[in-house]
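Late entry, written up from scratch paper. The run itself happened at the end of the previous shift, but nothing got recorded in the book at the time, so transcribing now.
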Amino acid sequence: MVLSGFVAGFINQYFSQYVRNVDPKNVATSLMGGKLSLHNVELKTEALDFLQLPIEVHAGKIGRMMLSLSYTRLSTEPVTVVLKDIYLIARNRTSVAYDLKEACNAVISAKLAKLENWQKKQLSPSPTEKNNRVGKEKMKFQEKLALTILKNLQVTIENIHIRFEDHSNGGKFVPCAGVCMKQLTICTTDADFKKKFDSNHQSKIHYKLLEFKDLGVYFNPKSNRIERSELLGDYFEHISEYKHLVSPFGGYLRARLSSDVKNTSEPKLAISCGFPSLRVSLAKEQYRSCLDMLLSLSRTRSRIDEILKKAKNSVDATEEANSKNQSKSCQERYILIYKKNLNTQGWLSPKTEAEEKELLEMEQGLKYEALISLRLTAMAEVRRQLGPGKDLMLREDSEAEESKNKSMFGWVFGRSNKSKAPHVLESELQRERESLYASIEFNANDNSESELPNLPKNYTHLKVEFRLVEFSLELLSDTWSPLITCLSK
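Output as recorded:
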């Protein structure tokens, strides 16, 4: 359950923001059993809107996602990840949907996101937490756990098709570009790059192999519109019908990773990659259509930039006026409400819904720098109220540190018992810890630390080798007949 909480938290925090209909509770429950399987996961079309690109996601889905891991057998079984049928359709923004008000909201949202990131850094573990016994043990455990998972991680991805359609001309047929790949695998190997489970926890040299099949890039000047992402799977059945800029090809990447900091005679990371053949072709019609597509995207990008610039100037002027007219009582009111954001131990009354709305309105109307100043003042006041022996940066007092570990998920993530983690007996938690420690050969009492040697001036950190057996380039006429062909071996 410790490991399932660790992985479930990662998935819910970083992955769920890009997909729909993924229930965090179901993810955690599935991982407790050692396996997670999701089908027909829909990608959020608005997930990339914050980038303010001249393109937008029209539809996307992942046909199947599987994750298999067992915290009691990490030393004997690999962690496997399988993704199948990843399809995504993107289109250019045929009209910039922003009016000035919407653009202003986008600027304000970016400011609030920046504030949220600032707060996360402020509430990260303090040097005191990092140096105390429990903090060191937790950090060492997380590092060893992550390394153990990554060392024998096996990844398989099948059927990827990402397609972009240009709808700026409004015609029945549209130019489109796409990147496709039939299969990609990543696995652990021996020194000869033959697939093998690495059970030697003392080894400081690890080998990884990445292989891919049928990676291709196409550009069709005239194509039927595709509305549903699942129709993109048709590509793998009719590859010959697509006009490829880069014909489907395969290849490999071999990596040798060294964790031996004292060995300065070999690079820390050595990579060799190679492709049996690479064929590139370009027709006149493709060239002209590609230039038109890039021009359309450039114009859309310019319109977005122009509106966002006006919006930023408008927001800046409003914030400047609000900051000048801000009264001392308004500042004190913000500090009072914000201090309740730092409350996890019940030493302040909880924020009301009206106070939440009031805080948001003040943050929307004030400058970022002014808000940082007010938040720092609030933190300083809370520290004085907490008194000695209590740490605001952890949002919990030092006396609660040991009891925190009685929460199974809290021990991994540093949460207190007031979180919604399941309650377990200390004896049960201790047995699980010992089992997990044994599976990754982790010793909490091992205080040995590696010291970095003085590296020579000519030390090579990264070494990359590239091998291409055959390369061909073709320039085609409007009738798709070869004009120029270059071949190199």
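Residues 393-424 have pLDDT under 50 and may be disordered.
(Scratch paper discarded after transcription.)
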